[in-house]
Design goal:
The complex is a heterodimer of chains A (about 725) and B (about 120). Chain A has about 725 residues and is α/β, with parallel strands linked by helices. Chain A is built from 19 helices and 22 strands. Chain B has helices at about 10, 45-55, and strands at about 5, 20, 25-30, 80-85, 90, 95, 100, 105. In chain B, a hairpin with a 4-residue loop joins β2 (about 20) and β3 (about 25-30). Classes of the chains: A alpha/beta (about 725), B alpha+beta (about 120). At the A-B interface, α10 and β22 of A face β1, α1 and β4 of B. β22 (about 715-720) of chain A pairs antiparallel with β1 of chain B.
Chain lengths: ~725, ~120
């Protein structure tokens, strides 16, 4: 069922989508709605319109290619959204199969473009010894579907909900040299069974070939732009096609020539905009220069850019952030703020006297360590919940009102704190709960507690857990307490602070005040999402820390207006250190994907030949730098622009010289070290040991590019030994 | 079993030799420098080094970073950590004539499902 604000949001954006030259195309629409309000459906509706419109206007092959690019920051979020978006694409695909004449022969598909921890990025082949390839993971799952993770992090058919089985994943055309991983539903009655596989492409290699119209990506994937030729294809940089997919200038022979190039994406959706801030946002802002340039096209002399919509529930200074990130000067917040902040027509704030609100309780204890406070808070909550659960009929009552409070969600600010608390939960909380009632006060007639036995293991929702275990944990959290697989205690870090949408959860214990108010609001909004069953958040504060103490003392005032305390975020893509770190990658990406002749791996050597065609590159970077903030004086703007010009020139000069030097010894030059036949690479990872061997003033040192947009630091393996010489057991 | 990794700066700060590192399935104690395996790169900080040598009175003092493998498939390089603790107190009580009421110890050889092995901090 649609909500009015979802319909309004879709309607409002139709003009910008349908008329590419309309000035509204350039406006960034920011969906600013409380968490749990149904934002995802709002932009999935918009995506469906965009996808269908592109096909209706041109049902031939030239309308295929990526049309909607949906981006997130965290893998947890991405998986959750994948399910809902996949259902939409399934529906569109069924419509298309019914009316091929109008919607075209090329299927509607959804692609998952995320890191290799979540999905295999390579298909793999027989004998390559790659345990992370799609082939190895599929075979492992087929042999042992009970304990091995599925090769793709989706557990159920998005169309009918049936759980995938070992036979659902098929490698094709041959198991030894697969080029594609097809997923079919095990349910015979589902529309996507047997010969009609689900329209999901989750492995990078087939994704670059098939170019699904709808792509879900993490922003980190942008980092692959300078290294590989294939990501450029997602922006329509292809010239040939056959029945299986598309070929770009970087691919080998094959396919027949396309009548005209594919269109770049029409719509970019950026979810949880507030997360693209700080160091990550700064790098994303720099790489966005490439995305913008690759998505740009001309219609009758007008420059057309994709429509961008974004969403968030907590943001401040959105305009400055959007300008730095996306180079868009106009931001329209939807719903627009009205004269009364409690009533924007689309959303009303209901007073606490009418509906149950989320209740926040602050707990602090003088002279006790926070761990003791944690122990007692967990004991009291777990035990009291059981008392009310039993009183309401226990497991026999299918609509037990105490059900949300039987699962305790613990929130921690650091993995280290979580680790220590996990021991407390699994040992002390567990053993004390079994005889908790013994400790009741003298002369206390009606004890608010009962004994309770909880499971041995607390489940974890953290970055140190593999994606499939996180997916499994999420599924278990949604189960009513009466069912097998229920969860007594779940421990989580800020991984859950966005996008965890489990209506059932009602109880959270936060250990220590989180560092930012935005995070606190986001994290605690994970509980009490069911309006009939309010949430309870217990924040444990350490009175011996001034910051926690201050929060404790102003607890009520702070919580009454905590949306006001949301911090302004900073995005500074053209700060000197950011430019040092990212500009080389941006310049190489622009040259490589912007000029088809330079796209193939070995063509890195030919810069001199095509440099005259790269005049636009300098203006692109310069314009972006000059517009990235409104706070610059005209003179400063001029200076920054000039600096960018000389940096870009310097990089291109250095690149040309490297190419000449390598050509003199007949070595050739390629972009990254692994893409093609071994030639000396132009780009190096900042941690690459080969780079350390270069002389201090080597030009190669200018070409550092990262594989991730986050901070990078060398990691040291830990070799675990035991005194008796054995190896530690573990999962 | 996946390879456990710690960031270089964390080894210098939080997880130096003797530190207890809590891993999802067990905990380890970071071993001393003599156990670390692989080539530890010199840190080029001549001024700091000169200062430290003078202040500490060790003329041959060197600054090195924790060893990092150069390639992904290079094994046996890194820092060594010992699993600790290996013995745990079980979560049930046994009553015997000899010792009265006690909780048995569970060592590395016991079955995992019977003895849930966790230690309390």
């Amino acid at each position: 069922m649609w909500r009015p604000f979802q319909l309004a949001f879709v309607l409002m954006n139709l003009r910008g989508i349908a008329k590419p030259t309309d000035p509204e195309r350039e406006v960034l629409d920011l969906l600013f709605f409380p968490t749990g309000g149904g934002k995802t459906e709002a932009y999935l509706g918009l995506a469906a319109f965009t996808l269908a419109l592109r096909r209706l206007r041109d049902p031939s092959v030239t309308s295929s290619g990526v049309s909607v690019l949906m981006r997130y920051t965290l893998r947890l979020l991405t998986l959750d959204q994948l399910g809902r978006a996949a259902t939409l694409i399934c529906a569109l695909e069924l419509e298309r199969q019914r009316d091929v004449g109008r919607l075209g022969k090329w299927p509607f598909e959804i692609g998952l473009w995320v890191g290799r921890k979540a999905t295999p990025n390579r298909m793999g082949k027989k004998g390559d010894n790659d345990r992370n390839s799609a082939r190895a993971r599929t075979i492992a799952f087929q042999n042992d579907s009970k304990y091995k993770p599925a090769p793709v992090p989706i557990e159920n058919c998005p169309w009918c909900g049936t759980k995938f089985e070992a036979t659902s994943f098929r490698l094709g055309p041959t198991t030894d040299h697969p080029t594609d991983l097809r997923i079919t539903c095990a349910n015979e009655d589902c529309a996507f069974t047997r010969d009609n596989p689900l329209p999901i492409v989750a492995v990078d290699e087939p994704l670059y070939h098939r170019l699904p119209c709808f792509i879900i990506a993490t922003v980190d994937k942008l980092a692959s732009l300078p290294w590989l030729s294939t990501p450029g294809k997602l922006f329509g940089k292809v010239d040939r096609f056959d029945s299986g997919g598309f070929y770009g200038p970087g691919d080998g022979a094959g396919g027949t020539k396309l009548p005209r190039p594919l269109l770049p994406p029409d719509l970019i959706i950026q979810d949880e905009l507030h997360l693209i801030s700080g160091p990550l946002g700064t790098m994303v802002g720099l790489y966005e220069t490439v995305v913008e340039a690759l998505c740009r096209r001309e219609i009758n002399g007008t420059t057309v850019l994709p429509k961008i919509v974004a969403s968030t529930a907590t943001v401040r200074r959105a305009e400055a952030q959007v300008r730095a990130l996306f180079n868009r000067s106009q931001v329209d917040v939807f719903p627009p703020p009205g004269p009364d902040r409690r009533d924007s027509f689309f959303a009303h704030t209901v007073p606490a006297s009418q509906k149950h609100p989320r209740v926040y309780v602050g707990v602090a204890a003088q002279g006790r360590s926070l761990k003791v406070v944690l122990l007692h808070a967990y004991l009291a909550m777990l035990s009291a919940a059981k008392k009310h659960y039993d009183a309401a009929g226990g497991a026999a009552n299918a609509t037990n009102p105490a059900d949300p409070y039987m699962t305790l969600l613990g929130y921690f600010n650091a993995l280290r704190e979580l680790g220590g608390s996990r021991r407390i939960v699994e040992d002390e909380v567990r053993s004390r709960l079994q005889g908790y009632v013994r400790h009741r006060r003298v002369a206390e007639a009606d004890c608010p507690f009962v004994d309770r036995t909880i499971q041995f293991d607390a489940i974890e929702l953290t970055s140190r857990e593999p994606t499939n275990r996180v997916a499994q944990a999420k599924r278990r959290l949604a189960l009513p307490f009466a069912e097998d697989g229920r969860v007594d205690v779940a421990l989580a870090t800020n991984m859950i602070s966005v996008g965890l949408d489990i209506t059932r959860l009602g109880l959270m214990v936060v250990l220590g005040q989180p560092k930012t108010s935005a995070e606190y609001i986001q994290a605690t909004s994970r509980v009490g999402r069911d309006e009939e069953r309010p949430g309870l958040v217990i924040t444990l504060l350490n009175v011996h820390k001034p910051r926690d103490r201050s929060h404790y003392e102003r607890f009520e005032a702070y919580h009454e207006t905590f949306y006001r305390a949301v911090e302004a975020t900073s995005v500074t893509p053209f700060a000197p250190r950011a430019v040092d770190r990212g500009l080389a990658a941006v310049v190489v990406s622009l040259a490589r994907h912007g000029e088809p002749a330079l796209t193939p791996a070995a063509r890195a050597a030919d810069l001199a030949q095509y440099r005259s065609r790269l005049g636009w590159l300098k203006t692109t970077v310069r314009a972006r730098a000059e517009n990235h903030t409104k706070d610059l004086e005209p003179a400063e703007r001029q200076e920054l622009g000039g600096k960018m010009d000389s940096r870009v020139d310097d990089l291109l000069d250095a690149w040309e010289q490297i190419a000449t030097e390598k050509a003199a010894v007949q070595a050739g030059l390629q972009y990254g070290p692994f893409e093609a036949r071994p030639r000396p690479p132009l780009l190096h990872d900042p941690l690459d040991p080969d780079l350390k061997k270069e002389p201090p003033h080597s030009k190669l040192r200018k070409f550092k590019a990262q594989w991730s947009l986050r901070d990078v630091e060398a990691e040291v393996p830990v070799i675990v030994r035991r005194l008796d010489g054995g190896t530690p057991e573990g999962t | 079993m996946s390879i456990i990794k710690i960031r270089q700066s964390q080894i210098v700060s939080t997880y130096g030799p003797g530190a207890l590192v809590d891993l999802p399935d067990y905990a380890v104690l970071v071993a001393g420098l003599e156990h670390w395996a692989g080539d530890a790169q010199l840190v080029p900080e001549p001024r700091l080094l000169a200062n430290l040598r003078r202040r500490l009175g060790y003329p041959f003092l060197e600054l090195r970073s924790p060893p990092v493998p150069e390639r992904d498939d290079e094994f046996g390089i890194g820092i060594v950590a010992w699993q600790f603790p290996e013995w745990f107190v079980a979560q049930f009580e046994v009553i015997s004539k000899e010792y009265g009421r006690s909780r048995p110890l569970a060592g590395p050889s016991q079955k995992r499902d019977r003895f849930r092995r966790r230690f309390a901090t």
